[in-house]
Amino acid sequence: MDIDLSHQIQQVAELPGHDDRAWHLAWNPTKFLLASCSADKSVRLYRYTSSDAGLKFDNIATIPTGHMKTVRAVAWSPSGKTLATASFDSNIGIWEQEENEDGAGEWECASTLEGHETECKSVAYSSTGTLLASCSRDKTVWIWEVHPDADFECMGVLMEHTQDVKCVAWHPSEEILASGSYDDTIKLYIDDPSDDWYCFSTLTGHTSTVWAIAWSPTGDYFASASDDKTVRVWKRVAQHKWVGVLILTGHERAVYSVSWGKGMGTGKGSLGWLGSAGGDGSVRVWELFEPEGAEVTVASPPRHKLIAHLPSTHGVHDANTVVWCPREGYEDVLATAGDDGFTRVWRIAPST
Amino acid sequence: KASGKYSDLSAQSLWLRDSYEESDGEDDGIEEIDQEEIFDLIRAIYDPEHPNTLEELRVVSAPQISVTSNHVNVEFTPTVPHCGMSTLIGLSIRVRLLRSLPNRFKVDIYVKPGSHQSEHAVNKQLNDKERVAAALENPVLLDTVEKCLSNVGAI
């Protein structure tokens, strides 16, 4: 049935190097860099160049990190100058490149954020780079204010979830934070200017762990990936109100990752391309569209179409992360990280 | 029985290893593995609290295992409904199978329905790969698992 899909997922690059499972990836927002992290406690940085022959990736640096346990997640600051790592050793690492003339300085630990009691699972910078969020099996979400010289101040410890917090994700333009948990819920937080950060909404619907959250490029929607094998799409229906509007099925095991990019859809009202990956090793790509028709209400679900599907992105292994390249002109490029320790880069190309 | 190829206690990584399909010199075809072979892998795991194996305590049995070409489902029966060691037993089974089976297999582990008062919590924990990975980076927990697995190559 896949031959009927409008697009194919073609491999662009295969990046070995990690000695253990690769958990997570982050594309640098300003430089041609891709970062991967692994249970081998290292972070690998790949520089990519584009030519007529396609994209080429070179491993330009490997950061041993010094974390005592698995590096579970990585996140770049919006400036592209700082990399944050979340580790099972319960710390967040902050990494910056030593300045030198040829721009090839060593990556050094600029700061270590301590406070979580158990494994850190996710870390994320806000859109302006002034805030950092982290989460842990200790059930908390921490919000840190980013000061100059790699100085961080804790602005709040949010103890809303009843179980491990698996992921944190900031709205693409507003200071709204989403978290997903082993308690099957999603929580949304904002800052009360006269008080502290607080949870303004708890979203239920998933029937098992929420592994990942991805906001749509405009921030009107977000998607969540779950152990219940579904991806759900949530829509903003008021300033501080999101509701579940769509359930995407097809994965045969837990969905570990979801990413929402602009895509290269030409259809009218395209909301971009949504990619998902999981324990079945597959990647699925949907195009979503604004609802249309006479019956449309504020809570109408987007229209959706599966445009591409690849069953085995990492051989027999799980795919742990899928993430769209954020750079202009590369909206059809995504990367995956797998239990085989590989990072793979893919292009979504029209079926011929 | 071919126990040697199953004994891989020295694996440095729990997740990446040479599959035994490559090492045992058999033909290139996918090796069939049945219920009995899975049972042979886990029957000699020690209970964390008793000087007995999971087979002797009837925690595991062949009929509680199902296998398809790339999926293994193991059900086990805690000795008592409030057994605090159930997660550890399940973790030992998972580690044993991770180290022994070709990596094409996805493994799900559950307690027998109705056999444990925290059935949902135990099942969820045992099948959360991130929690399992983190548990195995805990030296004390890993040491306990290794003790449970100290006899598994003997059969």
Automatic annotation (TrEMBL), chain A:
What SMART domains does the entry give? WD40 (SM00320)
Q: Which key words are in the record?
A: Repeat, WD repeat
Mind listing the GO biological process terms from this record?
Answer: iron-sulfur cluster assembly
* InterPro entries linked: CIAO1/Cia1, WD40/YVTN_repeat-like_dom_sf, WD40_PAC1, WD40_repeat_CS, WD40_repeat_dom_sf, WD40_rpt
* Record keyword Repeat present: yes
Q: Which GO terms describe its cellular component?
A: cytosolic [4Fe-4S] assembly targeting complex
The gene is: CIA1
Q: Which PROSITE patterns match?
A: WD_REPEATS_1 (PS00678), WD_REPEATS_2 (PS50082), WD_REPEATS_REGION (PS50294)
According to its UniProt record, which protein family does this protein belong to?
Answer: Belongs to the WD repeat CIA1 family.
Q: Where are the WD repeats?
A: 15-56, 64-96, 113-146, 158-189, 203-235, 248-288
- General function of this protein: Essential component of the cytosolic iron-sulfur (Fe/S) protein assembly machinery. Required for the maturation of extramitochondrial Fe/S proteins.
Full protein name = Probable cytosolic iron-sulfur protein assembly protein 1
